[in-house]
Specification:
This protein is α/β, with parallel strands linked by helices. It has three domains: 86 residues, Helicase, Ruva Protein, domain 3 (Orthogonal Bundle); 156 residues, P-loop containing nucleotide triphosphate hydrolases (Rossmann fold); 70 residues, Orthogonal Bundle (Arc Repressor Mutant, subunit A), CATH 1.10.10. It is 47% helix and 11% strand. The strands form two sheets. Strands 2-3-4-1-5 form a five-stranded parallel β-sheet, sandwiched between helices. Helix 3 packs parallel to helix 4, helix 9 crosses helix 10 and helix 10 crosses helix 11. The radius of gyration is 22 Å and the shape is globular. The protein starts with 31 loop residues before the first helix and ends with a strand. The relative contact order is 0.12. Bound molecules: adenosine-5'-triphosphate and magnesium ion. Magnesium ion (MG) binds next to helix 2.
């Protein structure tokens, strides 16, 4: 067989998208109660009454984001009067970036250099006569939660949900914001082994061709996922094992394929599991060009399809440093002054 022959490459996977971390299945098993509770917090808003604000917390990889997105999707299919605005604060640490993201979602265009307040006024204008559900996921990544006070005062008829895996996040925020938000606490508990198995079985059924994985192997993957306490591990193992099987032109996933996939995942740091497309790309480039300075690295990033501006690229690099995945070193500077060398941590 030739090196690039594609025969057999689709022998196991039916729909790879189903195994993406941000794929939201039609049914989210074992989170029916949480989904109902989130929906109940929003429901009164459909009858011109007030909703309630939630603080959703729980360990990583147990369906917090998936549940809220599931509800927001349902909401947008039900009404145009209550607008869902979901913001992941992972890379948007300041209110300027948060408000810009809100504006983007509402398809508001604004010129660069406008202030955060200006952007917020545009959002207010766009939402006039409507209510909104604001979700701020990974809220603990924000530099200053003061913007929440601004949101709650500007949109008194809307509701705000905060999500974090730090259960004590709210304890640490300003009493003034807290009393204004009146957050109801909502804890997501980890899944049991049976539940993890049920979730992975469903996803495998949607993603893989019939009879490509034995129950025993799926159980092994569920066991590892349960021990790692993060459903993403299971999704990763399913995808990797399937890909390895396809690379070997097999029609079934074997014990060896799963074993190889496990070896790969164990090499990854847990922080890397949550990175987005650009962060992964940056990390991949640094793995090959370790110690290169920021400018040339950015050029490589662009060549490989990256679309971030140089400013955002540097923000992502700084974020990866904070996560302990990259190390930055300020060089003495040449003609153009100081620059930064980027290393794998
Ligand atoms: N009950 C479920 N059914 C199907 N898939 C699920 C379920 N719970 C979680 N998942 C999947 O597991 C992955 C991780 O879930 P999610 O992103 O919601 O985690 P999280 O609790 O928000 O974690 P983090 O705190 O790290 O952001 C997602 O791909 C999600 O689709
Ligand atoms: Mg999440």
């Amino acid at each position: 067989m030739g090196l690039f022959d594609i025969e057999g490459t689709k022998s196991v996977i039916k729909n790879e998208e189903v195994l993406n971390y941000d794929y939201i299945p039609k049914i989210l098993p074992y989170r029916e109660n949480q989904i109902q509770e989130i929906a109940n917090s929003i429901k009164p808003m459909l009858n011109e009454r007030s909703g309630s604000n939630l603080f959703i917390h729980g360990a990583p990889g147990i369906g917090k984001t998936a549940s809220i997105k599931w509800v927001l999707r349902e909401l947008s299919e039900t009404t145009d009067d209550v607008i869902p605005i979901y913001v992941n604060c992972w890379n948007l640490k300041t209110k300027y970036f948060i408000f810009s993201e809100m504006a983007n979602q509402l398809k508001i265009s604004f010129r660069a250099g406008k202030s955060a307040e200006h952007i917020l006024r545009q959002v207010v204008y766009k939402l006039r006569g409507k209510r909104a559900v604001f979700v701020f996921d990974e809220i603990d990544k924000i530099d200053d939660p003061d913007f929440l006070y601004q949101i709650v005062s500007t949109f008194p008829k809307s509701c705000i949900h905060l999500i974090s895996n730090k259960f004590d996040y709210v304890v640490r925020i300003d009493a003034r914001i807290k009393s204004r938000l009146m957050l109801r606490n909502m804890e997501f508990k980890p899944y049991s082994l049976n539940e993890v198995y049920g979730i992975l079985k469903e996803r495998a059924k949607l993603a893989l061709k019939k009879d490509t994985i034995e129950t025993q192997l799926l159980k092994q993957i569920a066991n590892i996922t349960f021990n790692k306490k993060d459903v993403r591990v299971g999704l990763y193992l399913l995808r990797e094992s399937a890909k390895i099987a396809e690379q070997e032109n097999k029609r079934k996933i074997t014990k060896e394929h799963v074993k190889k996939a496990i070896e790969n995942v164990l090499d990854k740091k847990p922080e890397e599991e949550k990175l987005n497309k650009d962060e992964n790309l940056i990390l991949d480039i640094v793995k090959v060009h370790n110690g290169e300075v920021a400018g040339p690295l950015y050029e490589i990033y662009k060549k490989r399809g990256g679309e971030l501006s140089y400013k955002s690229f540097k923000r992502y690099v700084n974020n990866l440093e904070k996560l302990g995945l990259l190390k930055l070193e300020l060089t003495g500077g040449g003609f153009k002054g100081k620059s930064t060398r980027i290393f794998l941590a």
